[in-house]
Structures are given as C-alpha cells and as structure tokens.
Amino acid sequence: MTRTPLWFAILPVAFLVTALAINVNLFGDSSLDGSNQLILLAAAGLTAGLAKLEGKAHKVWEGIQGTISDSSKAIFILLMVGALAGTWLVSGIIPTLIVYGLDLLSPSFFLPATVILCSIVSLATGSSWSTTATIGIALMGVGQGLGFSPGLVAGAVISGAYFGDKMSPFSDTTNLAPAMAGAELTTHIRHMAWTSGPAWLIALVAFFFIGLGGSGGEMSDLSAMSAEIQERFVISPWLLVVPLISISLIAFKTDAVVAMAIGALGGGLAALIAQPDILFEIAGMAGSEGSYRALMQSMYGSVKLPMTSPLLNDLMSSSGMSGMLGTIWLILCALAFGGAMEASGFLGRITEAFLSLAESSFSLILTTLITCGFINVSASDQYLAIVVPGRMFKKAYQDRGLAPENLSRALEDSGTVTSVLIPWNTCGAYQSGVLGVATGDYFAYAIFNWLSPLINMLWAAIGFKIPMRKT
To answer: What is the rounded radius of gyration, in angstroms, for the C-alpha atoms of the chain?
Structure first.
C-alpha cells in the first residue's frame, strides 16, 4: 500500500485551524454557539473524503463511532453536572459557600487558597473534572463575590485541579501515561514532581501577587452582598454536608456519574428542607406540586433568582442540564473529527513526521511535547494526545537509552494539561461549560497548565532530571 504523503495528511488539520481562526475572528465568543461545531463536522467530512481517495473510507465511520463510544461517559457526567449545579443553587448550598467565603476569605489570599484547595480535592479524587464541577463551581461564586474576574478565578481553579489530577494515583491519565510509556506508576509520579512541583509553586506565587494587586472589591459592598444572600436564603453549615458527601464518594472511587447524581439528588432534598419558599417562587405555586416543578426545572432547565446586586443577579442563576447541551454538541463534533483522523491513519502519519525530527534526547522530548499539543489541537481529545505519542515514541526512547518515565512525564506535561486550553478539545469544552468561562478568558490565568510543558522543555535542554534506562 502506498504511503500517505505528509502534505495530504495535513490537509484536514490545515483546513480546521484556518477555518476556526476565521470563524473565531468573525463570531468571537459566540463561535461556540454552533459555528465552530459546523467547522469541526466539515473537517471530519473532508477527512472522510480524503480517506476515500486512499481506499480507507470504510474505517472512518467505525473510528468515529468508537471514539464517541469511548467518551460517552463524559457526556453523562456533563448532564449530571448541570443537574447538580441547579439543585445546589436552589438548595442554598452555593449561596452558603459564597457567604462563608465572603466572611472568611480576604481578597489578598483567595486566589492562592483556591489553587491549594482545588489541588487537595483533585489529589484525593483523581479527577480534575469532578473537582471543577463541585468545589470549583462554588469557588467561582465566592471569587466573583470578592470582585475577581471569572477568567482569573477559573484559571486558579483549573491550575489547582490539574495539578492534583496529574499527581494523583487515582487519576485515569496518570495511570494511562506510564502504561503507554512502560513506566511504573509510582516512579512516574515521583518524576513528574520535578516539573509539576515548580510549575505549581510558581503559579501559587503568581496568584498571591495578582491577588495583592487586585482591588478585591469594596469590603462594604461585599458585606452588603453577603447580607442580601442571607435575607434571600437559609444559610447553614448543615447544607455543606451534601458537597462533602459528593467529594467523599468520588474520593472512594464511586463512579463519577453516580456520585454526581447523588449530589444532585442531595441538593434537591436539601432544597425541600431548607428553601421551600425559593422552590415556591420558582414554580409560581405552593405545595408539593410547586416543589416538584421547581426541583425538576432546576435540574433540567433555566433558573434565575432576581437579586438587587448586579453581580449576585448573575451568580444566582443556573441553566441545568439544558445548559450543557451546547458543550455536548461541541464535544461530539470534536470527537467526530478526532475519530476520523485516527481511523484514516492521517494522525499517525503526521506524528511520524514529528518523530523524524528528533535527533537528540532534548529534541526527542521537545518533539513529544509538541506532538501531544498538536494532537490536542487536531484530534480534540487528551486521551489520544497520550496514547498516540506514547505508542509511537516508546521505541525511540528505548533506542536512545532514556528511562520510560521521561516519556510518561512528557505525555502528561503536554497531553494532559494543555487539553483544557483548547476551546474545541473535550477538556476545554467541558471546563468552559462547567465554570461558565470561555477558554480565551482563562487561558492566560491557567498558569500551571501552560507552564508545565515549558519547565519540562527547560529541564530537557539542560539535562536536569533526565534519567537513563537501567541496564
């Protein structure tokens, strides 16, 4: 069989990147409302057409189906996150966290505290997705209440969540990367500490100084907001039992869909007990029927609780499961393109070209980092960004005498953490949808995520902590 020319394999990616750049320039933030999805589908169609010219068309649809099937659980997690956010709002859980946050957190220390808290939760649960969907949502409300921009708070949440995810032995990507590279899990985690540790510390210091430089809002305004929330909701520490249960379930490796569903139902139960008047207001009627209608609406649809403060007016709203449909739409379209590129062999051909450029240990590690980032952009999935380079570069690392943990660390330092920086990647779409912040708004503030591959690159250039294979 004739080998696919590199220029031919690159055509779908060139089309995708060019069309998305034009589209974002024309539509701005609204490009995620549907136009980017259409471009991803068009790129998948182009890939299928080119694959047909090479006699591979029969593989493309199977590849798309397999990719979507493998990611179907993420879609259900997204739906459960929408339901959870809705019931946590009407139950007073999120308002309670905001009030306590306003009372206990000063603007100067909120951002580094956010990084630390999200790191701890993600380390315990092994999931950046679950962390942002639980404590992350609550911290977004607290941070905005303190006067910080949504993009800044989201960057702190994501930096902490992805550090904990990378360093947790419970994380799927942390187990996948060494499996692809042939490294031991514990060795892989220890080796990552030399890049993730400095990146995390630098991010922590940066957020500390950013927090000092920000106004954080007038404390009198914050007190007024706290008072308004307490007038509107019953605020009680008992309401925090629900998020504690959700986080504990995830920490004990309960299925994420089940844990999120229990969290949503727990929020509904808390609403019935603590906030019956809020439920009656949402439904426009009292009694059991009103409570039922309001709870259902909070889980599947839009809920908006009018407040005097403009900022609180934005915070006291939720779109439930329906608010996640746009994100799911984007993920499905991205997976269609990624599956088509993988099944047609175009992705593998491009990666081979990258590999041919690696002539030294430094260039091999650099090529790995670039390839993982490229696949995150082109295939729109962090798992492909770990698996494909892991498969293709494993032998090259062996031939150079490099220990496998060098490869596994590079896979994580680029494949895992840069995925959330790409708007059409499944991780970028998910986090943007959950936190309600466009990737372009939090990109610069996701300090840990873009700093990790740079530190890995620096260590490779100077030969620091690049162990050789034991004979």
So the answer is: 23
Q: Which residues of 296-327 are buried (b: 16+ CB within 10 A; e: fewer)?
A: ebbbbeebebebeeeebeebbbbbbbebbebb
Tell me the C-alpha distance between 194 and 214, whole Å: 31
Angle at alpha carbon of residue 380, lines to 327 and 148, rounded to 5°: 55
pLDDT classification of 272: cutoffs 50, 70, 90? very high
**397's tokens:** 């690392």
Between CA 471 and CA 465 the distance in angstroms is: 18
Tokens at 233, concatenated: 């909701």
Q: What angle do CA 305, 307, 313 make, to 5 degrees?
A: 75
What are the structure tokens assigned to 155, written together? 């960057």
254: left (phi over 0), alpha (psi -120 to 50) or beta: beta
Once rounded to an integer, what is the mean pLDDT over residues 417-443?
A: 89
Mean pLDDT of the chain: 85
Which residue in 354, 373, 369 sits closest to 457, CA to CA? 369
Residue 303 carries which DSSP code?
A: E
Half-sphere exposure (Cβ direction) of 341: Cα atoms closer than 13 Å:
36
If DSSP codes are grouped into helix, strand and coil, which group holds residue 92? Answer: coil
- Give the alpha-carbon dihedral of 74, 79, 81, 82, to 10 degrees: 150
Cα torsion 450, 362, 424, 31: sign: positive
Distance between CA atoms of 231 and 226, rounded to whole angstroms? Answer: 9
CB 208 within 8 A of CB 112: yes
How many residues are there in the chain? 471
> Which H or E run contains 456?
helix 447-462
Pick the closest to residue 379 from 157, 166, 71, 163 (CA basis): 71
- CA quadruple 289, 242, 416, 200: dihedral positive or negative? positive
Helix axes 72-90, 276-283, angle to 10 degrees: 110
The set of residues, in sequence order, having a beta carbon less than 8 Å from that of 371 and lying 6+ positions away, is 351, 354, 355, 388, 389, 392, 393
Distances (CA, A) of 334 to 43, 158, 215, 287, 422: 10, 21, 39, 45, 11
Question: The dihedral of CA 418, 76, 267, 171: what is its sign?
Answer: negative
* pTM confidence score: 0.74
pLDDT in tens, 175-217: 878 888 888 888 898 999 999 999 999 999 999 999 875 555 5
Angle at 391 between CA 40 and CA 15, to 5 degrees: 20
